[in-house]
Design brief:
CATH superfamily of the largest domain: Fumarylacetoacetase-like, C-terminal domain
Structural class: mainly beta
Order of helices and strands: EEEHEEEHEEEEEEEHHEEEHEEEE
Radius of gyration: 17 Å
Strand content: 35-45%
Helix content: 10-25%
CATH class of the largest domain: Alpha Beta
Number of helices: 5
Largest sheet: 12 strands, mixed
Length: 266
């Protein structure tokens, strides 16, 4: 099931994306959204009589994290190498505030404090319920679904601050979308990033050092996860700078594509 959050110009609402999708998760032209009664994370999937063509809505971030986005650094060996180091023995965690989340088509604002902002395309995990100390074999019980993420990073600030908070925490630095896929085998999904149409990242979740069950188990051993919290699972090699006016498209096979344009922060 694919669950989207959208607006037709009125209040945001949730809906189920109907119709066929191709191998990349791209929907057919006649795709329709069937409205839901409330946030399905809280009230479950309750279909309404509302039906709206996908072409007539603006998609929003499919989830608004209740408390946090947890990022995982250097979870692909090739990316760790391109960053000039080894992959850590344990998952390297950092936090992005929920105010960094934006949706498909929303601008990523280039902060005045930075001159080197990078894209990082990746698979994102959405948590379904309050959980702590989740065993790897029980992780499926606490996952609501998966979406596409772009862990935007001010690389120069990451180097100068020697930690991640400012570099990854600016407003608009966590695009998510286009929707949540609730039924998906994520063990071997292609993850790509295009910058202005040129392929820059091309990896597969098969190459993650720590897979999704290991990541959720590790994060939940440190902090309680709440419904709607998001875990970014790490990015393949090929990260690089983007400039004002650039268009970044991140695609995770089986889910879909997330496109955002970089804008100046006046």
């Amino acid at each position: 099931m694919r669950i989207a959050r959208f607006t037709t110009g009125d209040e945001p609402q949730f809906g189920v994306v109907t119709g066929d999708v191709d191998a990349l998760g791209i929907p057919a032209e006649d795709t329709v959204l069937v409205g839901l009664a409330g946030d399905p994370l809280h009230v479950g999937v309750q279909l309404t009589d509302t039906e709206v063509p996908l072409s007539q809505v603006r998609l929003l971030a499919p989830v608004l994290p209740r408390s946090k986005v947890v990022g995982i650094g250097k979870n692909y060996a090739a990316h760790a190498a391109e960053m000039g180091g080894k992959a850590p023995d344990e998952p390297l965690m950092f936090l992005k505030p929920n105010t960094s989340v934006v949706g498909p088509g929303d601008p990523v604002f280039y902060p005045r404090q930075s001159s080197e902002v990078h894209y990082e395309g990746e698979l994102a995990v959405v948590i379904s319920r309050i959980c702590r100390d989740v065993a790897p074999e029980r992780v499926a019980d606490v996952i609501y679904g998966y979406t596409v993420g772009n862990d935007v990073t001010a690389r120069d600030l990451q180097r100068s601050d020697v930690q991640f908070t400012r570099a990854k925490g600016f407003d608009s630095f966590c695009p998510l979308g286009p929707w949540i896929e609730t039924e998906l085998d994520v063990s071997d999904l292609r993850v790509t990033t295009h910058l202005n149409g040129d392929l820059r990242q091309d990896g597969t979740t098969r190459d993650m050092i720590h897979d999704v069950p290991a990541l959720v188990a590790h994060v939940s051993s440190v902090m309680t996860l709440l419904p709607g919290d998001v875990i970014l699972t790490g990015t393949p090699e090929g990260v690089g700078p983007m400039q004002v006016g650039d268009e970044v498209e991140v695609t995770v096979a089986g889910i879909g594509s997330l496109t955002n344009t970089v804008a100046s922060r006046d």
